[in-house]
Design goal:
74 residues; alpha+beta; Ribbon-helix-helix fold; 3 helices
Length: 74
């Protein structure tokens, strides 16, 4: 576990973009997408379409993952 973000490509509404997240966040994001029965690109596109334009997509995904994990603990 290096803690360094890893850049990966996503396709959001037909456009390629790259997002840098730590491996642990990528793993949890993939797991959440699978639990919801959605491709990772579809879930990322949903988050992208509802995020504040002042907040980056990587930050939006991290907060989403954190909230999902916290909700599972309740």
């Amino acid at each position: 576990m290096s803690g360094r973000p890893v850049k990966r490509s996503l396709t959001l509404q037909g456009h390629r973009t790259s997002v840098s997240l730590e491996d642990e966040f990528w793993a949890e994001f993939r797991s959440i997408a699978a639990q919801k029965g959605k491709p990772i690109n579809a879930l990322a596109a949903e988050l992208d379409s509802t995020r504040d334009p002042e907040v980056g997509l990587a930050s939006t995904i991290r907060v989403f993952v954190l909230r999902q994990l916290k909700a599972g603990l309740g």
